[in-house]
Structures are given as structure tokens and as C-alpha cells.
């Protein structure tokens, strides 16, 4: 039997409600054809013939593995190195201030929707350059999508992805593939070893035993409805040091979400306690 080329409104709502419960991501009606296209491929791979069969499989309480696959398929993971580069200049300034302050300890940064890792490695390159090495700082990347986390851990990217990395950082922290690895580059192990990645759902973040100096929460709030945006901001603030900084995407405003957040530049907030 041929799989239909559109998803019915009823089936779209079932997927939308399931994804919302699971991740907080809200797919509005404009996302219907996107959902249809992404699920069709999976349905074919599983040799199923209808959206109904797939949804029955997805909603089965024991289908945890398929549920994770569906999250991986339905999240949008666009990212690139040194995206919104003003944030990296801001990070440099913060480190310079931190280095000269009396209480400077381990400087820690969380890339809270890290996708395939380009954001976390851009942060790590900035820190390594400022600290002249691999000591005194740490970077953690997290995402709800396990497939992007695996890509991030591999630290290997197509050569075109390096275009926005500043020349000196590219030279110091990246290595061009040769022979069978032609067309790819990897993050040098000295740097990638300082960056860890794990799965984490921002609707329910747990597990950190310490707080961060800076949290990058960029280009993820756009997927949530207002009360959930506020919830996510509140969730991540639990892990921000007093006096630490929260950075959001330039198209995302969190103005008025929390009285303790003081905007100091567009999309950069200081956490005052
Ligand atoms: C567009 S990417 C942004 C990547 C990067 N922060 C940047 O600005 O380039 C959004 C990421 O948010 C992740 N995401 C969506 N909902 C999430 C949730 N509830 N918890 C954790 N990550 C989530 C997606 O899997 C995706 O990788």
C-alpha cells in the first residue's frame, strides 16, 4: 500500500501533542508539511504503510527507542561555528575581567542547546585562546537530541563548516583531514577533550553538581510557547552563578522574564542575586 503524501489534521495533532509533552516544543499548523516529510522517511525505513501505524508504534509505552528517534527527527538542529559572533567578543571580555579578579577559579560555560557541537567548540576555542591553554576552564554541551550529541562528541565536520572560524583559532585548534579524511576537519583532541556532551531536556534539567559562569541558551526558545520559554529560562537559572551571564539568540527576547536578569547588551543578561 502507498503511503499518503499528506498527514491528516488528526494525526498531525497526535504527533504535535506527543512532542509537546516530551520536549516542550510546540509545532504550530505551519509545521504540518515539515512533520509529514520528516516522518514519511522514517515510516518507509520501518516498512510501515501508514501514519496511523507509525503513531500507534510511537505512542506505545514501551517504545522508548522509537520515541527518541522521533525526537531526533522532529527537532531542528541548524547551527554553525561562531554564530552570532558578538557573543564571542563578549565572552572574551568576561574572561579578561574574570582573570583579573581575585576570586578567579575554573571558568565554566554551558551550551544549553548545543546541537552538533559547533557552539560549544566555538566557546572552547575562545576560552583556550584567552587562557593560553587548556587549563582553568571547562565547557559542557547538552541537547535533547541524541543523534546531534553523538556528532558533537565525534568532533569531525565537513571542511565547508570551518569558514566562520577565525584564522588563528582554526590554525591552533582544528586539524584538516588527509587521504580518506579529505574534505573533513576535526577539532584537535587537546581542545575536544575539554568539552563534554550529554543529553538533557531543558524542560527538566537535572544532574549538574555545580553552577556555570556563562550559559548560552541560543536559538532554542523560539520553539517554545511563552509560558514554556519562561519555564526553561527559570530552569537554567538554577545553574547560573550569581553574577553570571545568560546569552540568548539575537532574535529571542527574555526581557521581563525574571527581575534578577539585567540586560547589559542586546541578548546578554547578567544574573543579579
Ligand atoms: C537551532 S538549534 C540551536 C543550536 C545552537 N544553540 C545555536 O544557536 O546555533 C536548537 C537545538 O535545541 C534543541 N532542543 C529543542 N528542544 C529542546 C529541549 N527541550 N531540551 C534540550 N534541547 C532542546 C534541538 O534539539 C536543537 O539541537
From TrEMBL:
PROSITE patterns: CHER. It catalyses: L-glutamyl-[protein] + S-adenosyl-L-methionine = [protein]-L-glutamate 5-O-methyl ester + S-adenosyl-L-homocysteine. Gene3D superfamilies: Chemotaxis receptor methyltransferase CheR, N-terminal domain (1.10.155.10), Vaccinia Virus protein VP39 (3.40.50.150). InterPro entries: Bact_Chemotaxis_MeTrfase, Chemotaxis_MeTrfase_CheR, CheR_C, CheR_MeTrfase, CheR_N, CheR_N_sf, SAM-dependent_MTases_sf. Residues 1-273 form the CheR-type methyltransferase domain. One of its GO terms (molecular function) is protein-glutamate O-methyltransferase activity. The keyword Transmembrane helix does not apply. Its EC number is 2.1.1.80. Keywords: Methyltransferase, S-adenosyl-L-methionine, Transferase. It holds the Pfam family CheR. GO terms for biological process: methylation. SUPFAM superfamilies: Chemotaxis receptor methyltransferase CheR, N-terminal domain, S-adenosyl-L-methionine-dependent methyltransferases. The keyword S-adenosyl-L-methionine applies. It is an enzyme of class 2 (transferase). Methylation of the membrane-bound methyl-accepting chemotaxis proteins (MCP) to form gamma-glutamyl methyl ester residues in MCP. This is Chemotaxis protein methyltransferase. It comes from Rheinheimera soli. The lineage of its organism: Bacteria, Pseudomonadati, Pseudomonadota, Gammaproteobacteria, Chromatiales.
Amino acid at each position: 500500500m502507498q503511503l499518503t503524501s499528506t498527514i491528516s489534521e488528526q494525526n498531525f495533532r497526535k504527533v504535535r501533542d506527543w512532542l509537546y509533552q516530551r520536549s516542550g516544543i510546540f509545532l504550530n499548523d505551519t509545521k504540518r508539511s515539515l512533520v509529514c516529510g520528516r516522518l514519511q522517511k522514517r515510516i518507509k525505513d520501518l516498512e510501515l504503510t501508514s501514519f496511523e501505524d507509525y503513531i500507534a508504534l510511537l505512542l506505545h509505552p514501551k517504545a522508548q527507542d522509537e520515541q527518541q528517534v522521533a525526537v531526533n527527527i522532529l527537532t531542528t538542529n541548524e547551527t554553525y561555528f561562531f554564530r552570532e559572533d558578538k557573543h564571542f567578543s563578549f565572552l572574551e571580555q568576561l574572561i579578561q575581567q574574570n582573570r583579573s579578579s581575585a576570586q578567579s577559579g575554573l571558568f565554566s560555560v554551558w551550551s544549553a542547546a548545543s546541537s552538533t557541537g559547533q557552539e560549544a567548540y566555538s566557546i572552547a576555542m575562545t576560552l583556550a585562546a584567552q587562557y593560553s591553554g587548556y587549563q582553568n576552564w571547562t565547557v559542557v554541551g547538552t541537547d535533547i537530541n541524541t543523534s546531534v550529541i553523538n556528532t558533537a562528541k565525534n568532533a569531525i565536520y565537513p571542511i565547508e563548516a570551518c569558514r566562520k572560524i577565525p584564522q588563528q583559532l582554526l590554525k591552533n585548534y582544528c586539524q584538516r583531514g588527509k587521504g580518506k579524511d579529505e574534505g573533513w576537519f576535526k577539532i584537535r583532541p587537546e581542545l575536544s577533550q575539554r568539552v563534554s556532551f550529554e543529553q538533557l531536556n531543558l524542560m527538566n534539567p537535572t544532574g549538574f553538581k555545580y553552577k556555570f559562569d556563562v550559559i548560552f541558551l541560543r536559538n532554542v526558545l523560539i520553539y517554545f510557547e511563552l509560558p514554556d520559554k519562561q519555564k526553561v529560562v527559570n530552569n537554567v537559572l538554577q545553574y547560573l552563578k550569581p553574577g553570571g551571564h545568560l546569552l540568548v539568540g539575537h532574535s529571542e527576547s527574555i526581557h521581563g522574564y525574571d527581575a534578577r536578569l539585567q540586560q547589559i547588551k542586546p541578548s546578554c543578561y547578567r544574573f543579579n542575586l
